[in-house]
Amino acid sequence: MNKNIFELINRLNQSHSLSLEEYEDLISGYSKEAAEYAASLAVEQRKKVYGTDIYIRGLIEVSNICKNDCYYCGIRRSNKKCDRYRLTKEDILLSAAEGYTLGFRTFVMQGGEDAKFTDDFLVDVIKTLKTIYPDCAITLSLGERSKESYKALKNAGADRYLLRHETADKEHYERLHPSDMSFDTRMECLKNLKELGFQVGCGFMVGSPYQTVKTLAKDLKFIETFRPAMCGIGPYLTHKDTPFKDMPSGSLELTLYLLSIIRLIDPTLLLPATTALGTIHPKGREMGILAGANVVMPNLSPITVRKKYLLYDNKACIGDEAAESVNKLSESMKSIGYEVTVNRGDRKSN
Ligand code: 5AD
User: Which residues line ligand 1 (CB under 6 A)?
Assistant: First the structure.
């Protein structure tokens, strides 16, 4: 056991900042004991800001049509086995209506980069949702768009935008994506979203191919300096119809350790226990909460499309009715001492 690791964890807990080298030491110094210690401090920090509240977001997977060809992703454009779909405005409104009844006050529209989702279409859907549900927040997760487009979506009433940075290391980014995608564009999009006043979410996969301690340390430093409102992390999970089909999945333990570290970097962060975490282990989401996460994003998509929105193999919860999964979630959160709340779930300041 390395005593130095505990000292680093304590320092992060106090100053919410470390050097790049120290983040590397923190990651390479992983041990069960270090992870338990980091989790105990992370839970303490999270409780100070959010008590035992868990925020839920209704995830509506609006389209699996994507112009991009990311090597890790099951809905990449070259995957001919992917059965493509696109929800209509009516489908989206129906999912939201069901979600509202179940207590959701944030709707997340997530999808591939689908050219049919024009600004006009999205602006109309956002305005309609905001008119029917003025007490709800709207989160978009629709990939890279121009600054003008982001601005139109913001003006229509969208509150938040999730765009995982995927990796804060340019070379690593280039090994995960074909050459028509660019690290600099990704970072530019994140910057634009922030400038436009969105609550911005970034994030990355744990254990993605070619990830190293060095690239992970850069991810942590990026989170520390970019100061996102949200950060989505989950294990990389293999998808059988991608170029990375032989690459091993990421680890549960490292994901949990990183969740705790990220909570220590920013106690106020909205930090989801992701579907990927719930997929790698049946109790993954609960474990995520106990490591410092405070958000869960149950699936509100029509059941018929859920098995088509497969970014990775064996995705969890594709069969459950939304009502059933929210009930199960509330029960399981209660059993570990937390409570699912009915509110927008905005970020609090400490
Ligand atoms: N395993 C885990 N996460 C994945 N994502 C895409 N493909 C996979 C995979 N195979 C993540 C990416 C993307 C988000 C929507 O899902 O980080 O930004």
Answer: 72-73, 164, 166, 205, 234, 236-237, 239, 276, 311-312
Confirm whether 347 is domain-assigned: no
Domain count of the chain? 1
Residue 350 included in any domain: no
In a domain, 258, yes or no: yes
Mutate to test the pocket of ligand 1, among 60, 64, 69, 73 (most ligand atoms within 8 A of CB): 73
* CATH (domain of 106): 3.20.20.70
CA 82: distance to chain centroid?
Answer: 22
CA of 23 to the centre of ligand 1 (A): 23
Q: Domain range holding 97?
A: 3-341
E-only strand ranges, the chain: 53-56, 58-63, 106-111, 137-141, 160-162, 199-206, 230-235, 295-296, 339-341
Q: Which portions of the chain are predicted below pLDDT 50? A: 1
Q: What is the pLDDT of residue 2?
A: 61
Residue 43, number of CB atoms within 10 A of its CB: 18
Q: Ligand 1 mean position to 214 CA, how many Å?
A: 20
Q: Does residue 348 belong to any structural domain of this protein? A: no
pLDDT for residue 206: 98
How many other C-beta atoms lie within 10 A of the C-beta of residue 213?
15
Quick: pLDDT tens for 151-177: 999 999 999 999 999 999 999 999 999
Give 350 Cα–ligand 1 centroid separation in angstroms.
Answer: 31
